[in-house]
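User: Second chain of the day. Same drill as before.
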Amino acid sequence: MFPAKFEVVVWIRQTASFPALRDELLHLAGDDPDESSGYQGMVDFHWGFARIADAERMATAISPLTSRPEVVLLRLSNYDNLDASITYKDERQPRH
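Assistant: Same format as last time:
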């Protein structure tokens, strides 16, 4: 399998509401992530796509979750043209 040209990434804080939010995310996405891992109270979800239209559809379906404070990041990465990547929400704390 070739590497995905496009990727939708979501980061969610693991709070008491995490299980319900995770279920809602997966319901909106319509598919299990290709990869998911947890680290220091955060869980990330990654879906890879060969076509930009499919990645855009998923990111748009998930975007209502950006109003939730537990959702830290929603990004559509375009590995063909990184300048064309779309960040829907990014509240990551920069490292100093």
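Strands lie at 6-13, 35-39, 42-49, 71-78, 86-90.

User: Great, on to the next one.
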